[in-house]
Each structure stands twice: as C-alpha cells, then as structure tokens.
Amino acid sequence: MYFCLLKKDWLCLSRSPGTIAAAFGLAVVCTVISGFCFRRVGVSDFEMRGLVPGVVWLSFLFSSLAILSQSMWLERRNRALEACLSLGVDGGKVFFSKLTINYLLISILGLFIIVASSLFISPLEVGEVMLLFMICLLASGGFSAIGTLLALVSGAYGGREFLLPLILYPLIIPLLAASIACSHQVLSGDVSLVNDFWFQFIFLFDLVFISLSWYLSDFLLSFERQ
Amino acid sequence: MSDNNKILAVLSDNFRLLELLLHSRGFRYLLPAITLISVLVANYFVFIGVPNERVMGAVQRLFYFHVGSAFSVYFTLGVLFLASVCFLSTRVYLFDALARAAGELSFVLASAVLLTGIVWGHSAWNVWWRWEPRLVSMLILWLLVMAYSVLRASSRFDTESLRGGAAVLGIVSAIQVPIVVYSVKLMPQVAQLHPQAVSSQGLEDSNYIVALLLAIFAMLIFSVWLLVVRTSHLLLKEIIQD
Predict the structure, then answer these.
(1) Do A154 and B165 touch (CB under 8 A)?
(2) Mutation test of the interface with chain B: which of A75, A81, A150, A153, choosing the one with the most B Cβ atoms within 10 A?
(3) With contacts defined as CB-CB under 8 Å, which chain B residues touch A149?
(4) pTM value?
(5) ipTM beyond 0.90?
(6) DSSP character at residue B157
C-alpha cells in the first residue's frame, strides 16, 4: 500500500512541474540576491566564505516552502484526501509517503542551493560540497517531517501561503542553528562531523520529530475522516 | 453497552461536571477574590514594601512583573500541552477551549516578558537587545505561541480540523520549548548580562525575596483566573453557536 501511495504522490509531483520550477527558481533568486547585497556593501571574498552557511540555509528555508505548501494542497483539491482515507487507507502511510516525496525533493533542492552558493557566493571544493550535502540530507529529514505535518494543518485554510511559514519557521529554529553550526565547521576545515555535538543534535532532532510527526499525523487525519 | 462506551460515558459525565464547576460560585467569586487580594498585596510589596534598588532605582521594580510573567508563561505552556493531548485523546471540547485559552494567554504573557525585559534591560545595560541565550529562548518561545495564536485566528469558525490541527501544533510547540532552551545555551556565547539565578546574583535583602515570591504567586493565580474566564467564555460561545 505504501508503494502505491508513493507512486501516486510521484505522479502528482510529475504533473506539477511549475511547483518544482518555482522552488528551484526561488532558490537561485535568494542566493543571487544575497550575494549581490553582501558584495554591494563591500564584504571581502574571505568574509563571503563565512556567510555561505547562513545564505545556504536561508535560501533552503524559503525555497522548500513552495514544495511543502503545494504537497498538501494537491491532496485537498477535490477532497482527494478524504476520498483516500474513506477507502480505509492508513493515515500514517498516507503521511509517510508524502513525507518521503517531500524529503527527496527538498534534499535535491539542498544540493542545488549548495552548488548555486559555490557559484554566486564563494567557491567551494568538491569535498566541502559533499559534506554540506550530507548535512543537508540529515537536516532535511526533520524539516520535511515537521513541514509535511504543518502543511497538513495549514492546508485546510485559506491563506495557507502565509500561515505555513508563520507556524513552521519558529519550530525549526534549533534545527536551523545546528545545521548552520555544522556547515560552518565544515567550511572551517573540521571534517570529523560524526563526533560533533551539533551533528548528533540534528540526528536526534530528526529521530524525535519524525516519530512525533508520524504519530500525530494519524490523529490529524482522523479529523479528516469525520 | 460495551466497556469502552461505559468508560466514555463516565468520562463525559465528569467533563460535564467540570464544565458546571467553571460556572459555580467557587470559581465565580472565590477565585477572583483570591486573585484580587494576591495582586493587591504583591503590588503593595513591590511599590511600597521594598526600597529603591541602589544602582537601577525605581526601574528595577519591573523585575518583579518580568519574573512573574516568565513563570506564568511556562505554566500556561504546560496547560496548553496537557489540554492539547487530552483533546486529541478524548475529542471533548472543554480541552480545546482550555488549550486555546492557554495559547492566547501565553502569547500575552510572553509579550509582557519581552517588553518588560527590554525596558529594564535598556535601563540597566544601555542596550535594547542582546543575543543572549535566555533572551533568544524567550523570543523563540514568543514566536511559537504567536504561531499558535495566528492558527487559531485564521478561521472564523472552529471546525474539527482546525481544533485537531491546533492541538497538534500545541503539542509540537510545547515539546520544542525544552529543546530550544537547551540548544540556545550551547550556541556561541556573548558575555551574559542577564542574571542567571536569583540566589547567586543579588536579592540578598529578604524584603526583595518576599516581594519576588509574592509577585510570582500573584501572576500565577492571575493567570489561572484569566484561564478560567477565557475558557468559560469559549464554552458559552460554543453552546450558543450549537
């Protein structure tokens, strides 16, 4: 059943290329504008390197919102979610398949942003890009979990475009801080991430919030069945 | 009647009792009386009972409202968490009303903590804001409860979906609070100006300690009274709409 739902979500995604284009376009725009603004005030090349973690994660936050808000909107259109749940499909599996697709797309978006930052902010070595992508893969788990859950919450109401960032961003501040700390460490030359506290913090954050989101999604979707 | 239905019937009767209690004379007269007396006594001690602080002068008296509000914020967040869990488990509207009241009140109290802290901080340290752990964690907490309040206000009518979504957000936000407080302390530190603990940095005079304890108690009981009033209001609104 999970793989059927995954296939369904993949098909929905493939039929909305505008959303994917918007997310990647927004990522480029955020990165370029950040680079332009900082260069304009006379920030040196060396200082720009220190700004890379902040710019990467800021662009990541803004651009991934397009993917998250659209994911649940498609489900709610024509009451498709209610129809799916009324057929007896497990709410947890519906949520987890949506989470998987969001995670995959957001991780690819993260790699794209890292490469764009290497181009427009400060050049990065291949090893640094790979390590930053590894951090992105880990952080995307917790971010996708909370984001998908809150997209489910906010998707039911008009004005979801402003509601989702308003309720999502305060919740992921610890994850954001840990990701920036890890990224800064990588760019400073410290590659021994596994023993690093902030890296372990991201891992634990993912563990707690993926489990919590999965558990709470069942309760949330039970309100949809009524 | 099955065992589960019997249990639900008993719980439902208890919750109706609880609803009646909120409109009983005890809550309608006794609680406001206790609140009024506590607030008056606390204000007497804060404004008249304790002398001006040696360095900061009269502005230091904001400290009592600041600390009292901070304690009340954590109390109302605990109520928000428990009420949200109870609502998701039982679907009884009383818990949703209590959660909504707690969320709104914690937003107001967190705003009071930040505003009094900013004014007192500027007087004491000549800065409006510093990126210190305690200030940052309260700011993030304020953002969390603001998000909850915005969600509750986003729809004119409280549908079941909105209530369920709000309960989920309340639980996730409350769980986030200890994570935020812990992780912020581990971030790169600026020289901390905010007092770390009352017992280790001042308030050696017993008058100050008594005033502080009275202020904390008064704020807590005031928060309880406001919770009861707002929850009653929401319950009555629901009855009228039904």
Answers:
(1) yes
(2) A153
(3) 168, 172
(4) 0.84
(5) no
(6) S
Residue B203, classified by CB atoms within 10 Å of its CB into exposed (0-12), middle (13-18) or buried (19+), is middle
Beta-carbon contacts of residue B180 (< 8 Å; ≥ 6 apart): A173, A174, B137, B140, B141, B144
pLDDT tens digits, one per residue of A173-193: 889 989 998 998 888 887 676
Interface test mutation site (partner B, options A161, A171, A220, max chain B beta carbons within 10 A): A171
- pLDDT of res. B188: 61
Condensed to tens digits (0 to 9), the pLDDT of residues A130-147 reads 999 999 999 999 999 999
Per-residue exposure over A36-66, b if at least 16 CB sit within 10 Å of its own CB, e if not: eebeeeeeeeeebeebbbbbbbbbbbbbbbb
Q: How far is CA A58 from CA A63, A133, B85, B110, B134, in A?
A: 9, 15, 33, 26, 24
- Go through B36-74 and write b for each residue having 16 or more CB atoms within 10 A of its CB, e for each that does not: eebbebbbebbeeebeebeeeeeebbbbbbbbbbbbbbe
What is the three-class DSSP state of B55?
coil
CA B186 to chain centre: 25
Interface of A with B (CB under 8 A): 146, 149-150, 152-154, 156-157, 159, 163, 166-167, 169-171, 173-174, 177-178, 181, 197, 201, 205, 208-209, 212-213, 216, 219-220, 222-224, 226
Neighbours of B150 (CB within 10 A): 17
Residue to mutate among A72, A148, A164, A167, with most B CBs inside 10 A, is A167
- Is residue A110 within 8 Å of residue A19, measured between CB atoms? no
Q: Running DSSP on this structure, what letter comes out for residue B53? A: B
Cα of A179 to nearest chain B Cα, Å: 12
CB atoms A177 and B183 under 8 Å = yes
CB contact under 8 A, A166 and B147: yes
The three-state secondary structure class of B57 is strand
Tokens of B242: 């039904």
